[in-house]
Structures
1.
Amino acid sequence: MTPLGGRSYDRNVPGATQETIARLEGQGHRVTGSRRAVLDAIAGTVTPFTVEDICLAAPDVGRATVFRTVKLLQDLDVVCRLPLGDGGVRYQLSQSEHHHHLICESCGAVSEFSDPELDALIRRNARREGFRLDGHSLELYGLCPACQPGG
Amino acid sequence: MTPLGGRSYDRNVPGATQETIARLEGQGHRVTGSRRAVLDAIAGTVTPFTVEDICLAAPDVGRATVFRTVKLLQDLDVVCRLPLGDGGVRYQLSQSEHHHHLICESCGAVSEFSDPELDALIRRNARREGFRLDGHSLELYGLCPACQPGG
DNA sequence: CTACATGCAAATTGTTTGCATAGTT
DNA sequence: AACTATGCAAACAATTTGCATGTAG
């Protein structure tokens, strides 16, 4: 993937779309208008996004196609599914580095952070239980600075 | 769904049902036959369970009531929802201590662990980002000992 | 007796599939 | 031209809701 050394949150990098298109071609998938539209929608979305977000951002693409495309992107490891605590299904670009989510229960904002020390500790716990770790997800729920009383 | 063998946290403790009934009464909720049946079903289930599991174990209780009861138990903090990677929804008794989940992507087994050091690190990250932390969820995905090649 | 709980079925919501057609390569 | 992808609608699956009836307190 694009070696974006970029910021942790806000918008997805524009280059990601181009690179994904290259990957589609490389794997023998066709680069269609619908797929471009979905990729653009994803690139313009604050992570993490829902299928609904994409449908709104790419209104000319049918729902079924959005679902099919998101699934395809999952298979290509371009996006990954994010199991949120509220049961809602979200996706986000699979980024090179691990990050976790801070979810504001008041305004719904999602920001990200990463902490190598935390990841190391997680790996250690998995090892202790005899698990072969493939991935993990960590979400913190609370109030963002702007939503705190007196903040 | 393959039960996870040989661990200490396989079955739910019998006392939990009685305690939950006491809590229901204490909060002004009625203790009905359906609710008892659902609680018994949960008590007899290997964690984590699905709504379907309960419907099978308590066939005389209508589906809607099972959903309503599980939601009530969530509100009472008797059970908690588990966001699994495959999108399936499971629940389990909220255990006394804070814990995290190890989810086997092969057999679906879910085991638990807790690590105060990890929790402390999580709190520190939230503080650094200015978040007022209310809760968090952490799931690790991988292969359990039994499902590892050569394991 | 009164209000809350239940069951059933209809209504929602979220996701997948069948099929004829449009679009890529 | 060959074959894949799309859109639409119907099919599904999971969960919620309206309402008349049952029942715990």
Note: Residues 30-33, 51-52, 63-64, 67-68, 89 of chain A lie near DNA strand C (CB under 10 Å from a C1').
2.
Amino acid sequence: MLTRLFSDPSLLPDVQKYSGWAEDSDSEDKIKGEDQDTQDGMEASGLRGDSRTHSEHEGEDDEDDEVEEEDDGEDTEGDRPKKRGPKKRKMTQARIERSKMRRIKANARERNRMHDLNSALDNLRKVVPCYSKTQKLSKIETLRLAKNYIWALSEILRSGKRPDLVSYVQTLCKGLSQPTTNLVAGCLQLSSRNFLTEQQCQEGGRYGSGSFSMHSYPYQCARLSSPHCQPGSNSHPLRTHGYCSTYDSLYGGSGSPEYNSPEYEGPLSPPVCINGNFSLKHQGSASPDNEKGYHYSMHYSGLPGSRPTGAHNLVFGSSGARSGIHTENVLPYHDMHIHQERAPVYDELNAFFHN
DNA sequence: TAGGCCATCTGGTCCT
DNA sequence: AGGACCAGATGGCCTA
């Protein structure tokens, strides 16, 4: 593993910028050597993964042996009782050097481990319903979205019913931050206005529709202080752009009146608010996120000045995908797409909507 | 400038 | 002894 690591210069960090190494001139020099010429550097320093030969140890071992002999002599000496516990060995220069090298190797392993972890997260990003090259989901958001996605799919399988789009998106967005929610909603070409209305928030924050049994989710809609999230606000961009769900084109549900219902085509509701506390499996048990006290307050505001953090405002074209325009041409996220081709389960999901 | 996110280092713990 | 894993600390980058 280390061999692989050391043979891959990209896995080696620019450690010069780390003060910890800068303080240790010896270590810094070693790292610099590794950075400049990893293989040769490792060979020069006698470090080749964990496969150091005995001969490589010899010089140091000689010195250590002296120390150990001292210790052994102490333990076996005369009538004195043996000391318990680990022997304290003198930190000779060679021992210090070896310790440093161990630390360097451990750091490299840790880096590699985190890179692997990040690679896995990247792979996960690619199979969750929303993927953007430029606006990458954060780690925590990726995990949350993945959890919601798994739950949504399992609900589909469990109920065998075609889910309500709004509920589906709601499920996906449970506990996600506002930018991520907008991203997901944008991917699905669904205005987040449909998630929850301010009125629904006031009514206790329970929202139920569709086969997802969303009513069982313990929403906690915090009061929104933003004036843009007040009933009657006309600031929503969808008021001017109109709203056109591409759900039909995305999921092939054009024949279903359910998705052309006035609920989705009617007057635009005020900016929505969701506090996404996602309770798993309807048991009322707090999700890990809840247990950790995560409490995301989501509100959608279309005011230019109230652009969601780190996200673009959702701008839905009035024709959009209904006229055959691909999502990527409609959304500001040029590289954002639903990657059905990479997620077989999405095909199954589509099958639900096609039926 | 504060806050979020991230990469990395580091020491501790557990296991082989 | 050494590797895997973890959590805390730290500093950089970016954005509102």
Note: Residues 1, 17-20, 50, 102, 105-106, 109-110, 113, 307, 309-310 of chain A lie near DNA strand C (CB under 10 Å from a C1').
3.
Amino acid sequence: MSRYEKVCLIRADGGRAIRRILDRIGDKWALLVIATLHEQRMRFTHLQQRVPGISQRMLSLTLRNLERDGLVSRTSYPEVPPRVEYELTPMGRTLIEPAVALAEWAVEHDPDIGRSQRQYDSRQT
Amino acid sequence: MSRYEKVCLIRADGGRAIRRILDRIGDKWALLVIATLHEQRMRFTHLQQRVPGISQRMLSLTLRNLERDGLVSRTSYPEVPPRVEYELTPMGRTLIEPAVALAEWAVEHDPDIGRSQRQYDSRQT
DNA sequence: CTGGATCCAGTACGATACTG
DNA sequence: CAGTATCGTACTGGATCCAG
């Protein structure tokens, strides 16, 4: 596949496929949860501790969405007290690779973006 | 850099770097505009025609944000009627690669996600 | 032609409180 | 422990109208 054809993937179907995945990992917590879950399967509370700043509500919502998309699987054990563990599905794992590619770009260019923003803002004054 | 270290890039700085770029390309139109602009520099109206469904307002906002981030450059020609052209900056071009990686993943797994969602939803009934 | 200004609906997110 | 329910806020994106 040529580079040009690859770029067309972004625009494929009016960008609907890429939109769907961006709507998921674009939200505030999903990618962070995925990256955290990549280390190991984890219980709800442990996960909340490992993702600093996330509220119960948002962790709950995020996990439910990820489960619905088939990126995370949920296993609840019939015990008292209740124990529920979350882990990435095989498909969830494959998402790590492109996500890391984006993260590398982000970390590498973050200073440039910051500089550009400050320049832009100072010109507006 | 090991795979584990790479995954940590996502969580680096509490995920701030990846968040900044996701806040940008995660919005509804930015990535579509970038992909469209990858083909060639383009005027405002032409761009609007090439990105189906985008409103004037959103194109304008999107372009200004991208310009502020240093991903797109704006050149206005002192003519009547006014002519303004947009093109990707060198940094903007480098974003194409990880974006395409994500788009490939999205297109490849879109059917699986759709299936998973339908399954999940039918179980809730 | 290239946008800026305004109004409005939907929703993402946070804080807090409550429950099996 | 692992969530759900409720409320309030702030922001996003769309439609429309206006201006240099």
Note: The two ends of chain B are 46 Å apart (CA to CA).
4.
Amino acid sequence: MTGRPTITQLAAELGIAPSTVSRAFTRPNLLKPETVALVQKAAEAAGYVPNHHARALSTGRAGAIGLIVPDIANPFFPPLVRAAQNYASDLGLSVFLADTDEDPNREDRLISRMAPQVEGLIVVSSRLASSRIRQIADSQRVAFINRDVPETYRVLLDTTAAIRSALTHLAELGHRRIAYVGGPPQSWANKQRHSAVDNFTKAHALEVMHFSADPGTYEAAKALGDSVAASGVTAVIAFDDVIAHGLMGGFAAAGVEVPKDVSVIGCDDTLATTTFPALSTIAVNVGAAARRAVAALSENPGSTSLTGARVIFEGTLVLRGTTGPVRSASSPLTLEPELDYPTTGSVQVRRGSDS
Amino acid sequence: MTGRPTITQLAAELGIAPSTVSRAFTRPNLLKPETVALVQKAAEAAGYVPNHHARALSTGRAGAIGLIVPDIANPFFPPLVRAAQNYASDLGLSVFLADTDEDPNREDRLISRMAPQVEGLIVVSSRLASSRIRQIADSQRVAFINRDVPETYRVLLDTTAAIRSALTHLAELGHRRIAYVGGPPQSWANKQRHSAVDNFTKAHALEVMHFSADPGTYEAAKALGDSVAASGVTAVIAFDDVIAHGLMGGFAAAGVEVPKDVSVIGCDDTLATTTFPALSTIAVNVGAAARRAVAALSENPGSTSLTGARVIFEGTLVLRGTTGPVRSASSPLTLEPELDYPTTGSVQVRRGSDS
DNA sequence: GTGAAAGCGCTAACAT
DNA sequence: ATGTTAGCGCTTTCAC
């Protein structure tokens, strides 16, 4: 009949002041334990649920954060969303989810619309121009994931070292001609992985060929299989597991065997052991990144923007079944140990723990 | 300096009343066009953004809906989330996302917590008891997807007919012993698919064996491969594509070839053509379901609960590469045409359009 | 067509 | 330890 009860109604029922009822929920330690108990009992009985909007209006705290991703259907994002949501929930925050559909304009609009209504925003794999990002970061509380713009708060899933491990591994197996098959060109992760491959191969006199799956789908990558195989490379590192998987599909269709004819290494570990052979990949701790971003937003709740920071989580190489010795009989190369990269230590079977 | 401007500040600046500014946004037709233009210009210049919380408090409309799923990392859900979010966005609604982690208690808590703050809730694949669901539906605006409780508002992805098509197809290929490999036991979809298989096989003197992948993961299904193969069935229908895929992995490991030795049909079409051979499956229009649910919530914004309804979207069989003639030489069965099920018409290569 | 005033439900000084 | 009061930013009667 009367709908959901309000604090005022509860107070009236109990013959006490609304502020007392309010305090019973927000600052119970200011109250006599008996009073708190009394209020809680009555609230329970009446089915009282606090009104977030009223609270937000009064306190200026929204009790929610926004999470903006380019494409929730891409398997990289669901685990991230899940971790963010879980952790936010632990902190008493709700999460607004929005999908930009890879469209920078949509992303920009979404940010402007959401920002004022939330405690802060997490923007993953932003497709916006750096100048715009800096601008936004200046006036909004936003944490970026996988976008590296100076002075902003950003958490990065760094695969550079793991890619070096991967290439070392391939070189040790005798591979000399290697392909990098890129993904979304505007993506920071793609640029980072591209350069990591470039730098290492250059430094170690390995030959590298670049391809790009556009869009970064299974089908597009599969269609690329022929050209990659024809290019004469004996190993490939793909931007992500979806592309790696597509490539494997293309190779299979062309009669090219993995890992006998060509080795492949993916990235992000989104497919686990569901491919055949099981895909070797670079695992990346999306959960930790998501939690760090949420934590950043929940700290310093007053400020109008986050202070710049660059927090890094390193990926790790996980070897499964898609790498093997090079087919042709060139002798395995042992890389000089004095070169400036770690040759071991980051090769593990499972990804590391958090934080 | 002063942070984001408010309606009152804008009004003061322009020397007009706050109510006029408010109307310029919400009921422009009540105002002189020049006034509207004036206000809009000033708002733009000042970077005014309406405060959702204040609006919500004043109007009682939240401008947001909640979306509750059991596990966002399961590939069935992301496309649904995406469609819901897109459509909600079109209607000017934001969406809160929450993940229950398959835990009924968590689901229940989430519903109670979110419901008062939103226009309405979409609960997908609820794991709650029917009695509890009815109770909730009574006092909250909630649309259920893939949970069929009478008198509630529910949209169902019905695969019964498509499963009949699938079995017909298998029977025509000569299959007589068929397995159904189930998924989450509490899931409505699982129960529906289970009975669909049971009813049809019973009516047509096909032999059926039941298995269940618990949990419904690739790994669990893969581990089941041996037993399923050993059971002597020549075809299997899986609860979903993930399980079908796991089974294929198990079969491959056991040297059982698909479709030569055993045919397999999945459900939900979450894998497209990424398996080898490409998985035949039952495609289901999750986008349409999501949009219908969002639409339902946006209708009759006043009421305290949705009026019961049962809206159905039929799945369709899509044949790719995992079904073939039975290995042993039993003659193909042609089913009697007078039996009460459609033998053709729902076999298509792509899923149908919306509605 | 526009203004004045009250109020949505809650919290936060400031009393007491 | 609790009550009083004012006000968050917006919408909405009700006047004019």
Note: Chain B touches chain A through 48 residues (CB under 8 Å).
